[in-house]
Write a structure and sequence with these properties.
Layout: H1 2-49, E1 51-55, E2 57-60, E3 78-82, E4 88-93, E5 100-105, E6 108-109, E7 111-114, E8 117-122, E9 129-137, E10 142-152, H2 154-161, H3 167-193, H4 197-201, H5 213-256
Antiparallel strand pairs: 1-3, 2-10, 3-4, 4-8, 5-6, 5-9, 7-8, 9-10
The structure holds protoporphyrin IX containing FE.
Protoporphyrin IX containing FE binds at residues 61, 68-70, 73, 96, 99-100, 133, 135, 137, 140, 142, 144, 146, 148.
């Protein structure tokens, strides 16, 4: 009679471990889904945030009657980056920097990036940008202060301005929210069934789709691989326990009859 109870107990323990493991597997699947979604969101975000292109630049005279002399002193195309906030950063190479005393775009001084490179920000790449230059070549007894207009190649500017579809990003964020909800539900369930709650709840993190989550997700994947090898061990252990329990039961049954 004693061995019957023992068998029953061991068998029950093994079976409950297995049941808990099924739940842990669901959680591990959900966590894998979450890691995949987070990665996809990051990729979609990088694709939609910054975009750099070579864009042709034309400098027009103040009266806009034709190309300005200033054109000879800049390099076209320039490198234009559409930033996450929707503004544009222009990187422009200037020739004979020694002649340039002042250079303003839309009223603001440009930033000197290197000896012959300046950068400035514009809010509308398709508009004409007002430039002010103060030029001086003392050796040639030449000095001038001029207003000109900078125009960016309309085709390149338009393709840069066209924001990549954010519909996909919205959809991915929705899916991530659903997976996070399921994980929360499963974790709540697991904590009431006691046996496997330790393996599952340690994996739960409410990762938001931000750029900083790159490091986070790599951490997650290492903890996931550790967790999956743990799960394998628990499966084997629970099978052994259930087997021992069943053998105990069989032995007791044989002895009894
Ligand atoms: C040593 C070099 C330079 C010389 C000898 C020179 C000479 C001249 C002369 C004679 C004019 C008046 C004639 C005209 O309207 O075409 C002029 C106009 C002008 N220059 Fe220069 N320049 C020199 C450098 C520069 C530089 C480096 C810039 C720009 C950064 C510049 C920008 C302009 C502008 C904007 C005008 C007004 C007319 C226009 O928009 O084409 N110049 N320059």
């Amino acid at each position: 009679m004693k061995s019957y109870y023992k068998g029953l107990l061991i068998c029950g323990l093994g079976l409950s471990l297995m049941a808990g493991q099924v739940q842990a597997d669901t959680l591990s699947d959900l966590n894998t889904q979450k890691a995949n979604l987070t990665q996809q969101i990051q990729e979609a975000q990088t694709a939609s945030t910054s975009k750099t292109a070579s864009v042709g630049v034309t400098i027009l005279k103040e009266d806009q009657s034709g190309t300005s002399m200033m054109q000879q002193y800049i390099v076209s195309p320039a490198s234009v980056t559409r930033e996450a906030n929707g503004s544009y950063t222009v990187l422009l190479t200037i020739l004979h920097p020694e002649y340039w005393q002042e250079f303003k775009v839309n009223g603001a001084d440009v930033t000197l990036v290197s000896d012959n490179q300046v950068s400035f920000t514009v809010s509308d790449i398709t508009a004409l940008q007002t430039c002010y230059v103060h030029v001086a070549a003392p050796a040639l007894n030449y000095e001038g202060k001029y207003t000109t207009y900078m125009s960016f190649d309309s085709t390149a500017a338009a393709s840069l301005a066209q924001s990549s579809s954010t519909a996909n990003l919205d959809e991915l964020n929705k899916q991530l929210e659903e997976v996070n909800q399921k994980i929360a539900d499963e974790t709540a369930k697991a904590s009431t069934t006691t046996t496997t709650s330790t393996t599952s709840s340690s994996q739960e993190t409410t990762t938001k789709a931000t750029t900083e989550s790159t490091t986070k997700s790599s951490k997650e994947s290492t903890s996931e691989s550790k967790a999956s090898s743990n799960q394998g061990m628990v499966w084997i252990l629970s099978l052994i326990i259930a087997f021992l329990g069943l053998s105990g039961l069989a032995y007791w049954w044989k002895k009894r009859s």
